[in-house]
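Late entry, written up from scratch paper. The run itself happened at the end of the previous shift, but nothing got recorded in the book at the time, so transcribing now.
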Amino acid sequence: MEETDISKFVRVVDYNAGLQVVQGQEGRDFNFKGIHKLYLVVGEWTERFITNRALPNIEQLAREVGIETEQAEMYIHHLCLKNNPPLIKKLSVLEFDPANSAKVEDISKVLSLNTVFARPTNLDAGSAQRYINGCNDRSIESIKKALKQNRKPYKGDKFKDLIFTKIQSNRLCDTYASFDITKLFNSELDTKKEQKEATRLLHLEPILDKLVDDKTLVFFRNDKTDKEQNRKIHLYNDREEIIDRINFYVEYVRSQIVPGMVKLGIVSEIRDSDYKDFGALATNLLKFVDSSHGDQKTVLEELILLGTYYENYQEEMVKNKLKDQIDEILKLLMNSGKVVDINNIRVKGKALDKEMIPHILSNENILYSEYGDKKNYFEFILHKSCSRKALESARKEFKATGNDVMLRVLDRMGVMDHLSPEEKKEFSKLEMESLFKYLPFMTRLWRTILGNIYVTPEEAAFIRRQQEELQKKRIIQSKMKVIQKEQSRLAEERMKGAEKMDEKLNKALTTDPNSSEFQDDIDPNSDTAKQLAF
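Output as recorded:
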């Protein structure tokens, strides 16, 4: 509806004008004795609303005014419903009982509607919007508390039976979260269509919209449906429950819709694999149904809508699985405390998938470097938290054997950026010593005699450039060897595959086509069998 239609439900009579009306009514008609006080009491509650967020219901007004509840109801009916705009605004708020520990699928069983009343002040300029918003905020809080404390998701056969039953009775809308919440706003005071419309526009729809914005509910819009109650689909934002709903929809299509279509010759038999792409299947089947099929048509429409959600779910599952695997590998690297060749990593006895390696290398906690010697190509990785341990391990190896490979690898990884100032000094000193062997022989000999086994900063820079150029060449050469080896392996596999095919063809040509042996070896529907048949 347009904004102007909503605004007419927000307006109330000016406070002073309303006061004159109730004073006149009480003065003229004995049946309205106490209506003036009731008007004032509602006004007092409304003034305190900013601080306590509370408004009175009929029972509270009857007690404070000192009249019977039935009489208070009559006055409220007169003030709220007889005049347009009303003198007092009727509002709806959902109440949550924290003492109720019941576990239910339908939250309407643990929430209750409290019909309250407001008399906007002169500062509100004839609008009840502030109090409508306040009541809606309280209702949203109550719904969230009920979801957290009381709601248990639908599961298993109970959920399946509910879905199947509601589709058969053309009441699939009864399974939506919005149906549970809508039931709560059925007020006895809303006796006319316009009053029900006001409650929907002022309370129900803003509350549902806010719950969607807060990701408490998930919303889908079905513009293809012929039924208004199925147009807006609000579901509880419970991933497993929504996935179960999708699976039960697919099961219903498989067991209830497709068999009938096959029997009538509308569609041919549908393979199991076709049900995996249920969105495409539903799109195809939807061509053969119309509004006379009721919620069988609706369930096909909703499967199309839920297809994107299901795809996102599957992608998230893959991402979560990948994340768990990467976390496990990171934990292994942390526990190892050293530089590791990525090709030697084993998870549950299996080598890493090639698809996973880029994800590991791009992880912010990983340091990486390629390295090639005269024979092999390596991809070394190190967890940043193990930089100190790796440096100590490289130092011990160098001191014991003179092997400086790990020092070169750590340098290429940029490990210096992840060391403390003291550790940086230690690494720099160790590196200067390790570069000594790359000096010309006579220079080394002379310095050894003098007891100076370190290179100068200028010499170190020159040696690093020299070794880096050499290392790049070795890496390229090593990669080429790996590629050639892989090409040879693939070629060998193709040769073996071709030999096996030749054996099968030779066997087929010397075997009776009607024999069981022939049938076992060659698929009768294959191209090979068709060629042999000629």
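Residues 516-524, 526-534 have pLDDT under 50 and may be disordered.
(Scratch paper discarded after transcription.)
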